[in-house]
Amino acid sequence: xxxxxxxxxxxxxxxxxxxxxxxxxxxxxxxxxxxxxxxxxxxxxxxxxxxxxxxxxxxxxxxxxxxxxxxxxxxxxxxxxxxxxxxxxxxxxxxxxxxxxxxxxxxxxxxxxxxxxxxxxxxxxxxxxxxxxxxxxxxxxxxxxxxxxxxxxxxxxxxxxxxxxxxxxxxxxxxxxxxxxxxxxxxxxxxxxxxxxxxxxxxxxxxxxxxxxxxxxxxxxxxxxxxxxxxxxxxxxxxxxxxxxxxxxxxxxxxxxxxxxxxxxxxxxxxxxxxxxx
Length: 278
Hints:
Number of helices: 11
Number of strands: 0
Largest sheet: none
Helix content: over 70%
Strand content: under 5%
Radius of gyration: 34 Å
Order of helices and strands: HHHHHHHHHHH
Distance between the termini: 22 Å
Shape: elongated
Low-confidence stretches: 1-6, 34-72
């Protein structure tokens, strides 16, 4: 604002100079000539002040809208959408990469797949009778299946990301710190389940989880006077694998929103600077 004030003072001084010149004309030329001169000089003064004010007005407008007179920081709808897509790609890629390697689920307590709630009593009973080893094997293999399934998550997310609308983008940008993750949950949960479930089934068999689970359940169901159980393992592990993926994506999203260092491209920096100022 100090710069604008100085510019205004400069314009006032320039106007005074013009006024002095007009006064000189009044004293030295006849009335007809004076009218002609005043018209010319008034036009010039008006034009000069108008052009000078354009830059100041433009700066004020652009400042209000989040840009500058050159438009270098103003954001278009396309930039916002592309910036959000970059954030989603970065978040989903990192989240999936962390989980889709060996021990990605198994050694991460935040997402580790444990026995289903209805089978918790199975684990406790077997450990109580000294059969904890087969429980440990079963839990490890459940997590290996989840790690295998996570590999295919990226393709599902890409389809949702590429179909993002302007409305979606603005809701995400100005929304909560997990708005990106919630958008993916809303748009990909069914497709992700359909993608994960057959992989989980195949993986449970290939890593021996189905056999390990069968051994656990069979041993438990042979205990006298115990109510027999047989939870749906495929769907359970699928749901837990999806929960883990979304949890890691949300973690990455919060990092991008809160830590400028995580905004690794110029577009990410520009787009999330708008969010910072909301």
